[in-house]
């Protein structure tokens, strides 16, 4: 322990493990510690099932109908990976994919008027969808074609739109699209959580819709991927990457003090010893007095013995309930996975409903989602505080990650990783540079 490191990382959430891997690949000396005995932190997958019952203070053991506890891996924070998104790119470049197997999520649905519908994301699906009337379908088809062809470097594709000055609201008006089409486009394709995006430059929403379409075209059923054995496999994969490049890991390490001198981090004290460092990465729980609470997320983990109704009996899916459909400011999400992903025993499904808390009765806020899932064998409800750093690390060299939000994909997590990387190194995260560093050490064949 009494050594000097370039970077010490506290916490084994996905954000911390990816940054640990990246810094190790860059050739820095990394020490990674966690007070817990397991990987994943807030984003862990809990196994066996008995541990989940204990975590949520549910008395007794799981019933026999739940099978062996070891056959369960239950995510605390439900997320999918966009097939063409930033996390998949990080996984491919770092070759962490060698340690993981993925399945395509079988369906993406949107809630309208109390019912769920498949999200139309191609021109063909748009024409067949019962979400819209005939004339609206034609207008939506033209809109999708416009988005697919839009290139901010080619004025001919823009149809007079200024990507940085024209608001997204104006684009919808240009194609004469109604409120409900705006709802499912903004929330189920562009995956915005609120309607704030409508008055922002349209290029952001256009790029997000393109990401959805490109991710969808990779595999066809939906734009989402999910790792076998649960999301807890992701931080472990990046931990292996860090170890290959010389990173040192210590689980079950109590953190007694983060040692500061003249306002700057110089080390971490654990079990009476101090490991010195130049920079520190940690999750909010390790440095609460340099964070602020910015909201709460409610999540309800529901164990079902049936697929969700009206989804075509798929083994996995996402359902988005746009906020306007239920008179809210934030969307409600449902992620469902099952025994097909080695996270539950045969015939069982895990559906997790989540949203950003807006009232003093959070469980009532997710009722529209829970109504879609009933009946359930068991339900585990958690309300988590969301934190973001108040110290950006410029002086202190302490870099604190953000809490995991209510979104059901990892794009915001990847944005946080790139933001911390920029503040630590003074330069933007470069996927190509990462690839070159891997080749320098492993060669082309690895």
UniProtKB/TrEMBL annotation:
<dbReference type="GO" id="GO:0005096">
    <property type="term" value="F:GTPase activator activity"/>
</dbReference>
<dbReference type="InterPro" id="IPR018203">
    <property type="entry name" value="GDP_dissociation_inhibitor"/>
</dbReference>
<dbReference type="GO" id="GO:0016192">
    <property type="term" value="P:vesicle-mediated transport"/>
</dbReference>
<dbReference type="InterPro" id="IPR000806">
    <property type="entry name" value="RabGDI"/>
</dbReference>
<keyword id="KW-0597">Phosphoprotein</keyword>
<comment type="function">
    <text>Regulates the GDP/GTP exchange reaction of most RAB proteins by inhibiting the dissociation of GDP from them, and the subsequent binding of GTP.</text>
</comment>
<keyword id="KW-0472">Membrane</keyword>
<comment type="similarity">
    <text>Belongs to the Rab GDI family.</text>
</comment>
<comment type="subunit">
    <text>Interacts with RHOH. Interacts with the GDP-bound inactive forms of RAB3A, RAB3B, RAB3C, RAB5A, RAB5B, RAB5C, RAB8A, RAB8B, RAB10, RAB12, RAB35, and RAB43; binds RAB3D to a lesser extent. Interacts with DZIP1; this interaction negatively regulates the interaction of GDI2 with GDP-bound RAB8A.</text>
</comment>
<keyword id="KW-0333">Golgi apparatus</keyword>
<dbReference type="GO" id="GO:0015031">
    <property type="term" value="P:protein transport"/>
</dbReference>
<protein>
    <recommendedName>
        <fullName>Rab GDP dissociation inhibitor</fullName>
    </recommendedName>
</protein>
<keyword id="KW-0963">Cytoplasm</keyword>
<dbReference type="GO" id="GO:0005093">
    <property type="term" value="F:Rab GDP-dissociation inhibitor activity"/>
</dbReference>
<keyword id="KW-0007">Acetylation</keyword>
<dbReference type="InterPro" id="IPR036188">
    <property type="entry name" value="FAD/NAD-bd_sf"/>
</dbReference>
<comment type="function">
    <text>GDP-dissociation inhibitor preventing the GDP to GTP exchange of most Rab proteins. By keeping these small GTPases in their inactive GDP-bound form regulates intracellular membrane trafficking. Negatively regulates protein transport to the cilium and ciliogenesis through the inhibition of RAB8A.</text>
</comment>
<dbReference type="GO" id="GO:0016020">
    <property type="term" value="C:membrane"/>
</dbReference>
<keyword id="KW-0343">GTPase activation</keyword>
<dbReference type="Pfam" id="PF00996">
    <property type="entry name" value="GDI"/>
</dbReference>
<dbReference type="GO" id="GO:0007264">
    <property type="term" value="P:small GTPase-mediated signal transduction"/>
</dbReference>
<dbReference type="GO" id="GO:0005794">
    <property type="term" value="C:Golgi apparatus"/>
</dbReference>
């Amino acid at each position: 322990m009494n050594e000097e490191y370039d970077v010490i990382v506290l916490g084994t959430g996905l954000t911390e493990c990816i940054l640990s891997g990246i810094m190790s690949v860059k050739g820095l000396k990394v020490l990674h510690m966690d007070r817990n005995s397991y990987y994943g932190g807030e984003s862990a997958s809990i196994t066996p099932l008995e541990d989940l019952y204990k975590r949520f203070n549910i008395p007794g053991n799981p019933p026999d109908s739940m099978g062996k506890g070891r056959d369960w891996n239950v995510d605390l924070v439900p997320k999918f990976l966009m097939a063409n998104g930033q996390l998949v790119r990080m996984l491919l470049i770092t070759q962490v994919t060698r340690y993981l197997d993925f399945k395509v999520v079988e369906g993406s649905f949107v809630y309208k008027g109390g019912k769920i519908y498949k999200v139309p994301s191609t021109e063909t699906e748009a024409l067949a969808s019962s979400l819209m009337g005939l004339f609206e379908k034609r207008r939506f088809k033209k809109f999708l074609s416009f988005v697919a062809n839009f290139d901010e470097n080619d004025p001919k594709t823009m149809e007079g739109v200024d990507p940085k000055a024209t608001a997204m609201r104006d684009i919808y008006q240009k194609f004469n699209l109604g409120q409900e089409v705006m709802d499912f486009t903004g929330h189920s394709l562009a995956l915005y959580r609120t309607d704030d995006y409508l008055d922002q430059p349209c290029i952001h929403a256009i790029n997000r819709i393109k990401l959805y379409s490109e991710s969808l075209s990779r595999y066809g059923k939906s734009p989402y991927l999910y790792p076998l054995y649960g999301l807890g496999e992701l931080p472990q994969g990046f931990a292996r990457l860090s170890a290959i490049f010389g990173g040192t890991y210590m689980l079950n390490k109590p953190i007694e003090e983060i040692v500061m001198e003249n306002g700057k981090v110089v080390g971490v004290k654990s079990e009476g010893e101090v490991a010195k460092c130049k920079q520190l990465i940690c999750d909010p729980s390790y440095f609460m007095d340099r964070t602020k609470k910015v909201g709460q997320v409610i999540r309800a983990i529901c164990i079902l013995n049936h697929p969700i109704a009206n989804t075509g009996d798929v083994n996995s899916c996402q359902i988005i309930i746009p906020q306007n459909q239920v008179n809210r400011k934030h969307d409600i999400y449902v992620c469902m996975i099952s025994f097909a992903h080695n996270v539950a025993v045969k015939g069982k499904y895990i559906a997790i409903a989540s949203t950003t808390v807006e009232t003093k009765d959070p469980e009532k806020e997710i009722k529209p989602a829970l109504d879609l899932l009933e009946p359930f064998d068991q339900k585990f409800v958690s309300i988590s505080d969301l934190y973001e750093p108040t110290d950006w690390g410029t002086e202190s060299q302490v870099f604190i990650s953000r809490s995991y939000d209510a979104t059901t994909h990892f794009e915001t997590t990847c944005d946080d990783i790139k933001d911390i990387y920029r503040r630590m190194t003074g330069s933007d995260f470069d996927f190509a540079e990462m690839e070159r560093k891997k080749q320098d050490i492993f060669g082309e064949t690895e």
